[in-house]
Amino acid sequence: MMNHQPLLTVIVPCYNAEKYVDKCISSIVNQTYPNLEILLIDDGSLDSTGAICDAWQERDSRIRVIHKQNEGLAYARKTGIENMTADYVTFVDADDWIDADMYKNMMSALLFTNSDIAQCGVCMVYEEDGRRKHLESEFKTGAFEVIGRIEGVLLILENDRWHSWMWNKIFKKHLFDGIEFLKGNGFAEDLISAFLFHKAAQSVYLPDEYCYYLQRSESITGATHLSKQLKNHLDFFDALYDRYCFVAQHPEYHNALSFVKIWSLRLGIHLLRNIIMYPQYFDVDYFYLKSKQLRSMSLTRKDKMERGLKMEFYVLKITGPRGYRFLRTLYVKIINLMNRLKITNRQISNLSSDLRNSQLIYYI
Fold this sequence. Notes:
Layout: E1 8-14, H1 21-29, E2 36-43, H2 49-59, E3 63-68, H3 73-83, E4 88-91, E5 97-98, H4 102-113, E6 117-126, E7 132-134, E8 145-148, H5 149-158, E9 169-172, H6 193-199, E10 202-215, H7 226-248, H8 257-277, H9 286-295, H10 307-340, H11 345-357
């Protein structure tokens, strides 16, 4: 046990989580690291989530509840940061829970190595059958590794060994100075973590799995309503495009530039398709704004992208937003006509080949 235990703020955004929030809060208050400030941010919940949070506030003096209008997960986190009093901060989503020794071991490693960020392993738990997916190892070893700034940012950007999640990390509060949280953003909000690692001199990584990440179909990442899916898509592209611009401006991270660029282009092209297909769900200027952002990017020979998407991107670059919209709309109309006429798959394939050869829709 550490002789000195700095105060750690735990921020828990809560929205319509009455089925899960009690287990989440219980896992926090039962931490073996006791010097906690627990901020429960009720983000305009429509169920009993707010009342459950209030009841916990009565039971534990370390808990403070903030009720606010619904503005999205990112702004709930922002509210927590604005109201915290500690020099260290971490996050927990209201439907997840954490190991009892998580904060004790992570704070110990953070202070021992004098790092700016501590990060631990994650275990995914599937609600429907309780199945667990260990992203590291289910066995805890107590090991940790110090990671330099550039390596840490690249690991986050490449999204392979590490992930952008905010809730398996502890941060020094000063890293959030100047970080922008977008109102209404409830998807891909974790992608700001790359900017935080960029501001950190070094981080410490604990592979032990202390976070339990619940996979449930009705969560933000599993949204089924079309309007919500489209909003998530837009949020995700905006976050990825910001990340691409950031990497493009910092040569030390260019090893990850192609990866970030390709993901931005893939998501952006599919976003343009959705804006054309469902214009009623988007502001009038979005199509031209997103087209401009995509056209500002360029592909090189080493950028590995699917042939169809690559050709569609070049059509956008060459013909501009209006030309792209016309050709994409024409293609959709042709496909819909084929479906109405019940043309067979082989006939469709042959016709599509003929059309490509005539360069009518060669970008598909």
